Amino acid sequence: MGILMGVPMSRKKRGPAPVREVKWVPDREVAPLRTLDELLKYKEEPLLCVVEPLSEAIERGKPGNPRTIFCHDMDGNYKEDRFVYGSDDASAYRFHHWQIIDTFIYYSHQMVTIPPPGWISAAHRHGVKVLGTFILGKDDIKTINIARGSGLTSQVATQLANVARTGRFDGWLISIGCKMDRSCVPFVKNLLSAVTTETHKAVPGSLVIWYDALDVNGKTKPQNELNEKNACFLDLCDGIFLNFRWTEEMLTSSAQLAGDRKADVYVGIDVYARNTSYRGGYEMYKAVQLVRRCGLSAAVFAAGWVYETQGKRNFAKNQYRLWSFPDNCCSDWRLTKPPLSTSFCQGFGTRVFEDGKLRKLGHMWFNLHKQQLQPRDQGNTLCSTCCSVKLHAEDAYNGGGCLRILFKPNPNQSDVKPYVRKYELDDLRGTDGAILDEIGLHFFCIEGEANVWLLGQLDVRRPGDVRQAVPDERASGEASVSEDSSSDDEPERKRLRDEQYGLDAVMAE
């Protein structure tokens, strides 16, 4: 995951990944395409699993608002997550802070990185788009010359679009960082434009983002800002991912040049903070704040730092800390229509529950397909340290875990006890039929009041609005459900089963 000449999006040569014997999975895994020949010969194959489509029930911010990308690079990736049907390593890296980000990029050091379907399903369930990567590094000038000399622009673009459509993901991060003559730049621009056009055709709503590795003169010199040397690439696609070594002055000038496309400028933030002007690690959110203050978007890179350097034993605790962003670093996130179904499983466990009953004990498993809708405030301490909400892996309704509300008694207020009440949606319905309901917890404590948006907002408009109001039969107290939404072959409509248990059933200790 090292930075090569200031360009982290490189194709550093690596040895083959160590092969680990996995006992609990069929012999099926996802692999990248390593050469131009592999890409050109790529043929559509039927997927052996169901991939969750991008949720249409989630609204993320407003057009033009700053966004956040998480670009996931952890030692070249394709670890336990590469197995289509999961693995038996419950300690594998996972991510569940989906409400904080808008786009997830799966990155490796290969030419064409195809995101594993587990990541796609988990992200799509939360309304997050997933991008693969197409990378030509410093040693790939021969590939450029072959594609250019043989007139392969259209074929390469079409094949990349086919890969995205077949893999059920949402576009590409394009990084071309090989030193070239200035005469090659028009070919690169034509390729970027063609990939954008073909991917938009093949995958409606898709994104193609350019990485800041090459300037308009053909030099592999990242600009770390939007300027006259790289702005032409932004004009040809949906966004630009700036390199990581920026300053506040560069942010200001980038915002000025971007104009009404400020949100399409993604400022790279290296969690390792290698030769940067900002702090990384647990303080990387401060860099996100600086970026958003200028109206620009953020691109968090290599957040696997917390798994690789901080110890796997405390991974969950450290992950909560790393992604505990303040509100001004987060986009609005709301559910726009029922049904709402979750047991809060993160896609791993040491046992398996079905309908509240233990089915398998001592069964180590990891499968991001099984990850269910996740809350934003999980792991945080709430109400001046008296309450917190955390994953509980010893019990579950469905899957391998649930949420547990923890109450820490105040020694100075020994008579204060926790009290949890379940509210039906009809309790909050206005006289005109409108609902604007926060799905989560509301605490009243001695120290004050706290509002916790565990699942954002369920926003149902008035009957006269553009969006139709939810019928009465769906707006009952049974709208909070604990059905397992992660079954690979279960359609959405079956998730309404067991609605009567409510959210309090899956938050039980």
Automatic annotation (TrEMBL):
It comes from the Eukaryota. Residues 466-476, 491-500 have a biased composition (Basic and acidic residues). Pfam families: Glyco_hydro_85. InterPro entries: ENGase, TIM_ENGase. GO terms for cellular component: cytosol. Residues 466-509 are annotated as: Disordered. Residues 78-351 form the Cytosolic endo-beta-N-acetylglucosaminidase TIM barrel domain. GO terms for molecular function: mannosyl-glycoprotein endo-beta-N-acetylglucosaminidase activity. PANTHER family: CYTOSOLIC ENDO-BETA-N-ACETYLGLUCOSAMINIDASE, ENDO BETA N-ACETYLGLUCOSAMINIDASE. This is Cytosolic endo-beta-N-acetylglucosaminidase TIM barrel domain-containing protein. It comes from Rhipicephalus sanguineus (Brown dog tick).
